[in-house]
Design brief:
The radius of gyration is 23 Å and the shape is globular. 1% of the residues lie in helices and 51% in strands. The chain starts with a strand and ends with a strand. It has 2 domains: 378 residues, Methylamine Dehydrogenase, Chain H (7 Propeller), CATH 2.130.10; 71 residues. By secondary structure, the protein is an all-beta fold.
């Protein structure tokens, strides 16, 4: 991983966070997620099928027309191939994709075909799990120019019914199911405007939530609204610190609200920038709580992303000063591992979008950047990082007893290997191991399959 430069920062519930500037950990290689340049505003739809394949669905331009393409990436980070979903459209928004009850894919996208066959609206298409062939529903799920001219977010109910959300000048709209004869359900917004819609469903309670960024006067900030099959459920909830004190203004958001339901645990969480008039940090909020769970220092952070990982953990990612920053929480989503800076692809001049999927454990990071060859999506896998703490606990007869503790965002890691000089140790159930030696080791390394290596200096006795 090369040399690292570390600084200390504070969070609400974490006393210290070590921010390490490092080259990307293994696998650690950027791969183009597609061959043709896209748009700076292009944001992908991401989903992983049961076979471990990550499906990246995004827009491409072909002459004066737009196309919707799918790129498939294996669980090992290897590019498997790509294929077109829609071609020859006059307009397309950014897509969202969810899994169907049969394990296949369903994509939603706002669009309008070529003028000769104009039929604007929110369009849906499906494919089997392997990602081909795609079948387009003949009629839009929601017809009309408003549904065609917006980006879309999507989730599913516990029984697999798809829910698509989009925004209009009068607020957020959503649909349960894909019946063109169904009705649009509305989450009103006082004043203009609702932006960057997204959605997630609590895996335990089954409650779905719609989220958007509001720029309405006295109602600005990140808004999350519980929704149901007949309309909004209860009152909208504002993410703490996502706007100025009286919600008069908020820092403009660039991409879909980063909302995710935990895997294997209850709770829906949102990651977002805090501070006005400039972003001063990245917050993690459990929807319904009165305060953010975490607040990580990150002056000028943008393009904030959130992805669920196994055992209730969450990955956070954002862009800042031309680099990509990542970290992962513990099982209770109350602490994070050391924040790492991941260098961008070669000759990157700007980062426009940051997204990710973490359902297998590592983070599949997908970014849209300006780089040599145009504006393109790139992909890299990021392994969770081990933390290693060392203390000299006793000294007797010229020998020193050292204690080593290996953790994953504060959670003990058993069966980790600790390398100290010529000694190789293995941690127990508590994630700790002890070494008594007359030598004075300088450093120690902690490793385990599926993790990036952690290191620590060994203190003098």
């Amino acid at each position: 991983m090369g040399m690292r430069r570390c600084a200390l920062g504070a969070t609400l519930l974490v006393s210290l966070v070590v921010v390490c500037v490092a080259a990307a950990g293994p696998p650690g290689a950027w791969t183009r997620a597609g061959k043709r340049p896209g748009s700076r505003d292009s944001e992908a739809g991401l989903v992983r099928t049961a076979d471990g394949v990550l499906h990246v669905i995004s827009l491409r331009r072909s002459g004066t027309k737009l196309e919707l393409w799918q790129v498939r990436i294996g669980s090992d980070g290897r590019l498997l191939g790509s294929n077109a979903i829609l071609r020859g459209w006059a307009n397309l928004g950014n897509p969202a994709v969810v899994l169907s009850p049969d394990g296949g894919l369903r994509v939603f996208v706002g669009g309008d075909r070529a003028p000769a066959a104009a039929n604007p609206g929110l369009v849906t298409a499906t494919s089997p799990a392997e990602g081909a062939p795609w079948t387009i529903q003949p009629e839009p799920v929601a017809p009309g120019a408003d549904a065609a001219a917006t980006d879309v977010g999507a989730t599913t109910t516990k029984d697999g019914t798809p829910i698509a959300v989009w925004v209009t000048p009068t607020g957020l709209r959503y649909r349960y199911g894909v019946d063109p004869a169904g009705a649009d359900l509305v989450v009103p917004v006082t004043g203009c405007c609702a932006l960057h819609p997204n959605a997630a469903t609590d895996i335990v309670t089954g409650q779905p939530y719609a989220a958007f960024a509001s720029s309405a006067p006295r109602a600005s900030g990140i808004v999350v609204q519980p929704i149901g099959p007949r309309g909004a459920v209860g009152q909208p909830q504002y993410a703490p610190g996502s706007a100025s004190k009286n919600r008069a203004s908020a820092v403009a958001s660039d991409e879909r609200v980063a909302i995710a339901a935990r895997l294997g645990a209850s709770g829906v969480y949102v990651a977002y920038g805090v501070g006005y008039p400039t972003v001063k940090g990245v917050a993690l909020w459990s929807v319904g709580a009165t305060h953010a769970v975490l607040r990580l220092p990150a002056q000028g952070a943008s393009e904030i992303a959130l992805a669920a990982a196994p055992d209730g953990r969450l990955w956070l990612a954002w862009a800042r000063n031309g680099a990509n920053y990542v970290t992962r929480t513990n099982r209770t989503a109350t602490r994070v591992e050391p924040v790492r800076a991941i260098s961008s692809p070669p000759r990157t001049t700007a980062i426009w979008r940051v997204q990710g999927v973490g359902s297998l454990g590592p983070l599949d990071l997908v970014i849209n950047v300006d780089a040599t060859g145009g504006t393109t999506f790139w992909h890299q896998q990021i392994l969770p990082l081990l933390s290693l703490a060392v203390s000299a606990v006793a000294q007797q007869d010229g020998a020193t007893r050292y204690s080593f503790a290996v953790t994953d965002a504060g959670d003990p890691v058993p069966n980790a290997t600790v390398k100290v000089g010529t000694q190789t140790l293995t941690t127990g159930l508590a994630g700790t191991v002890v070494l008594t030696t007359t030598d004075q080791p300088l450093a120690a390394l902690a490793s385990k399959a599926g993790y990036a290596t952690g290191s620590a200096r060994v203190p003098k006795p």
